[in-house]
């Protein structure tokens, strides 16, 4: 899928998680719902950091391009080192390592640890990166025609305001665990969810997605999982824009309403 569909699916997934949390008697305070939805919308772009032309690779100037080159090389190396006998060697790592569940869990755990041990400044940094991505993803062309600096300013202001809201007592810094020692540990959850939702989104398209690596399927470790062939579509196809995106909006809206107990 393309950036906007990925980001929308991420936001909708977190709002759905909010509804599930309310159902299981762990309701999210509204800042957790809002911050999580933004982070998840941003994190749902992150797996494409393995491809130079993706939104995410252009969002942070030379720093983003450098990171993209490193992740691309790493993905290619991991693919070639772990491929099965029937799987061809390849150059370029697009849709490999960063499109798997171990990657999602790993980066989520990393960001959780950073938030717990790094405190307020780490939270600010995590929010900045993800709000910038969410703006790039959700506003798409509108963000492209404006300058990068404007998007970064918007990200910085958003991160600053949201962190100050989150830090106030009762606003959810300790949501889910209730332990002041583990403040902000939940920030890794929307990051895991975003990465997974991205891969599932890609699995609906023509090429499929090796989400379950390294679990072998039909003798292949990088088996491109997906829906039945006839249901798959090209990234950016009308199904994505005219069916899936409105669906994500409706599902996300319904999830949010339930999560905040608004009806
Ligand atoms: Zn992708």
Automatic annotation (TrEMBL):
Q: Which Pfam families match?
A: YdjM
What InterPro entries does the annotation carry? YdjM-like
**TM region positions:** 31-49, 100-117, 123-142, 149-167, 187-215, 236-260
Q: What keywords would UniProt list here?
A: Hydrolase, Membrane, Transmembrane, Transmembrane helix
The GO terms describing molecular function are:
hydrolase activity
* Tree of life domain: Bacteria
Q: Mind telling me what this protein is named?
A: Metal-dependent hydrolase
Q: What is the lineage of its organism?
A: Bacteria, Bacillati, Actinomycetota, Actinomycetes, Kitasatosporales
């Amino acid at each position: 899928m393309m950036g906007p569909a990925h980001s929308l699916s991420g936001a909708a997934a977190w709002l759905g998680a909010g509804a599930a949390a309310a159902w299981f008697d762990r309701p999210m305070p509204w800042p957790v719902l809002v911050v999580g939805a933004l982070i998840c919308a941003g994190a749902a772009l992150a797996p494409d950091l393995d491809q130079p032309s993706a939104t995410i690779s252009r969002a942070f100037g030379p720093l983003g391009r450098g990171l993209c080159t490193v992740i691309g090389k790493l993905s290619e190396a991991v693919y070639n080192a772990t491929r099965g006998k029937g799987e061809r060697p390849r150059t370029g790592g697009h849709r490999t390592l960063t499109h798997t569940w171990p990657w999602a869990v790993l980066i989520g755990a990393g960001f959780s640890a950073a938030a717990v041990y790094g405190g307020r400044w780490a939270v600010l940094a995590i929010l900045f990166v993800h709000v910038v991505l969410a703006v790039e993803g959700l506003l798409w062309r509108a963000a492209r025609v404006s300058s990068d600096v404007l998007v970064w300013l918007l990200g910085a202001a958003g991160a600053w305001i949201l962190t100050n809201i989150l830090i106030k007592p009762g606003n959810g810094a300790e949501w889910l665990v209730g332990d002041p020692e583990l403040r902000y540990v939940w920030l890794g959850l929307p990051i895991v969810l975003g990465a997974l939702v991205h891969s599932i989104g890609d699995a609906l398209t023509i090429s499929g997605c090796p989400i379950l690596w390294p679990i072998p399927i039909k003798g292949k470790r990088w088996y491109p999982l997906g829906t039945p062939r006839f249901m798959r579509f090209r990234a950016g196809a009308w199904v994505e824009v005219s069916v899936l995106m409105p669906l994500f909006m409706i599902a996300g809206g319904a999830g949010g309403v339930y999560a905040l107990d608004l009806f």
